[in-house]
Specification:
With 291 residues, the protein is α/β, with parallel strands linked by helices. It has a single domain, classed as Rossmann fold, CATH 3.40.50.1820. Helix content is 35%, strand content 18%. It is built from 10 helices and 9 strands. Strand 3 and strand 4 form a beta hairpin. It is globular.
Length: 291
């Protein structure tokens, strides 16, 4: 399963959460009334986050976790909505917004150090959880295949952003970005691809696994030792205590009750295969590669 994780994308430190009473809040955004879940639980964390957020020590992770909210996003061309998790900018500006995707099996919290810097630079930044990962409300699990992830991202953009964006995708997030830009070119001004994982042809043989084996592999993917090992591979010169803390950050979204089902759903669906779209995306968009 570790090889599968490397093939699908890196496992960066991600997520956070806290639990208590959920409240509804309203604000006006571009003339659209936004009603989303933003009530606070313990220590100011949104109530929908897993309670394990309380154990996180990283101040950047804790601060960004407090900013996460859920916005209603329509799906499947119907009246159904998903309360979708993201970090929303405090101020909307005239310039093209920056939309930050995340790596495979991660969340918006992997941007915990970069996001404050983008805001300090005066940019309007959105850190969005891709459907099937992060901290959305997926109690009634929708399909978590590529088409569903793409449409969900489009609906979020169409409902709340509504302007061409600078779309940033690291690792497997680069495949998400390319797929989105090719299918919805009107939504993307520029692509920024960071260490892109875009040449794998989907999940390969993993899509053919019996479901019982797929669930066993996904259960392994959640384990603390595997996540810790991924952190040790990714970061040099950090203390053991910090590595342990970042591991807790990176696996926090795995505590969402739907996480295992959503991950298996994505795996058996075949995953992202954007090899044939890379040239098209590069020609159609102003694309920057950060290797």
């Amino acid at each position: 399963m570790m090889m599968a994780a490397v093939k699908l994308g890196s496992l960066p430190p991600a997520a956070l959460g806290g639990v208590t009473v959920t409240k509804k809040c309203e604000r006006s955004s571009g003339g659209v009334r936004v009603v989303g879940e933003c009530g606070s639980g313990g220590n100011g964390f949104p109530s929908f986050l897993p309670k394990q957020v309380e154990k996180i020590k990283d101040p950047f992770a804790r601060n960004l976790a407090r900013r996460i909210k859920r916005l209603p996003v329509q799906i499947e061309c119907s009246d159904s909505f998903i309360m979708s998790s993201c970090v929303q900018p405090l101020i909307q500006r005239d310039a093209n917004p920056v939309v930050l995707l995340h790596c495979f099996d991660s969340s918006c919290l992997e941007w915990r150090r970069a996001y404050p810097l983008l805001e300090e630079s005066g940019l309007e930044a959105w850190a969005i959880d891709v459907l099937g990962w992060g901290f959305s409300d997926l109690g009634r699990l929708p399909p978590c295949n590529v088409a569903s992830k793409r449409y969900h991202l489009y609906q979020l953009w169409n409902s709340y952003i509504k302007r061409p964006v600078v779309l940033v995708g690291p690792s497997l997030g680069a495949a998400v970005a390319i797929d989105f830009a090719v299918n919805y070119p009107e939504a993307v001004k520029k692509l920024v691809l960071i260490n892109p994982s875009v040449y794998a042809e989907g999940t390969g043989n993993l899509a053919k696994l019996p479901r019982v084996v797929a669930y066993a592999g996904v259960s392994l993917l959640k384990t603390f030792p595997l996540r810790l090992y991924a952190n040790l591979l990714a970061f040099n010169g950090i203390s053991l205590s910090r590595s342990l803390d970042w591991t807790n950050v990176g696996r926090l979204h795995c505590h969402m009750p739907w996480w295992k089902d959503a991950t298996v759903n994505f795996m058996v669906s075949g995953g992202y295969n954007v090899v044939s779209q890379i040239k098209q995306a590069g020609e159609a968009e102003n694309t920057t590669h950060l290797w």
